[in-house]
Amino acid sequence: MIAVVRETASAEQLDQFVRWIEDRGFRTNVSQGANETIVGIIGDTTQIDPFLLESMDIVDRVQRVSEPFKLANRKFHPEDTVVDCGHGVLVGGGHFQVIAGPCSVEGDNLIGIARACKEAGATMLRGGAYKPRTSPYAYQGMGERGLDLLMEAGAELDMPVVTEIMDPRDVGAFLDRGVDVLQVGARNAQNFTLLKEVGKTQVPVLLKRGMSETIDELVMGAEYIMSEGNLNVMLCERGIRTFETRTRNTFDVNAIPVLHHLTHLPVIGDPSHATGYTRYVRPAAYAACAAGADGLEIEVHDCPSKAWSDGAQALTPSQFADAMRRLALIREAVTADVEEA
Ligand code: PEP
Ligand code: MN
C-alpha cells in the first residue's frame, strides 16, 4: 500500500505519520520525489483501513499495491534509482555504463584486457574469480588471487570492479578487498541465502536473471536483497532458456522495458551470455541499448580462442571498440529530444 502525501505537509508531519504507521508494526519506505512524496507501507496491509488513512490531513490519496514486490516497485518509488558504483560511476536515471572484461580472471593478461576496454570507453571492469561451471571438472576460477588481480587493475585504471559471488561465506573476503559491485549470477538468482547476505551489505549488487526465471521472479530476487536494507540493486537480463538451440540462450529484450515499467532499478543487458557466440553479441548489444538499457555487460578477451571460459562469446578488443562507437550513436538516438507528433 502507498500513501501519497500532500505537498503542503511539513517534515514534522511526515515524521509523525511515518511513526504512526511503524507503531502499528509496519515497515515504511519514504520516497521523496521532485513532485510527490510517497510513503510505502510494507506488511500485512489488509489490516489497515485505507479510508482511515485517507481521512488524515497529510494524506492526499491511498493506493493498494497488488504486486508482491514492494521496495523494488515503481509505485513505491516513481523516480529511477541511480546506483553509485564508486570511482564516480553512476548507473540508471540517464546514466549509461558499459561493464567489460574477460569471463574469468586468468592471470597477468587481465590488465592488458582491462586497459583496452577502458580505452574503448568501458567504465567498469568485470572478471570472474569464482566461476559457476556446469561441470565440476571445468575451470573454477582463481579465487582470492583473482579478486586481488581485479582490484589491482581497477585501482590502476580507476574503474569499479564487478565480480561474481557464489557463496554467502565469501562476502567478507569481497568486502575486505573493496569489491565495488557484487554480481549474483544466473545460477544463484534464487539462492535466497546468498541474496539475503548481500542484502546485509551496502555494496551495489548486479542481480542476473535466472535461466528459467520469469520477470516477476527476478524482481522478487531484488526484493530479497532490498528487504535486508541494501537498495543498491541493478537487474540484468542475460537471456533465458527456451526451445531455441541456435543460440546459447534467448535474449529477452522485452524484459528491459518491462522491468523499467515495473521497477525503478537500473537494467543492464548482457548480450554475451544471451547469445553465446561472438558474431551475435554486437547486434544483441545494440538491441539492448535501443530498448533503453541503463548499461551493458560484455565479455572481452585478448585472445578468445585461448580463453579459459566462454571464449566462443568473447569480443576481441577491436570488436569491442567497434561496438562502443556504434553504441554511442544508438544511445544518442535513444536519448534525443524528438518532438512528438
Ligand atoms: C558471467 O557473467 O560470467 C556469468 C557466469 O553469467 P551468468 O550468471 O549470466 O551465466
Ligand atoms: Mn561468462
* Main pleated sheet: 8 strands, parallel, barrel
> Termini distance?
37 Å
Mean pLDDT: 97
The DSSP helix count reads: 11
- CATH class annotation of the largest domain: Alpha Beta
In the CATH hierarchy, what is the architecture of the largest domain at level 2?
Answer: Alpha-Beta Barrel
Number of strands: 14
Concise overview:
The chain has eleven helices and 14 strands. It has 341 residues and is an alpha/beta fold.
Task: Explain this structure.
The protein has 341 residues and is of the alpha/beta class. The protein is built from eleven helices and 14 strands. The chain has helices at 11-23, 50-54, 109-120, 144-157, 171-177, 192-199, 215-227, 255-262, 271-275, 278-290, 317-335; strands spanning 2-5, 27-32, 37-42, 59-63, 83-84, 90-91, 97-101, 124-126, 161-164, 181-184, 205-208, 233-237, 267-269, 295-299. It is globular, with a radius of gyration of 21 Å. Manganese (II) ion is lined by residues 103, 273, 299, 309-310. The site of manganese (II) ion has 5 residues, from loops.
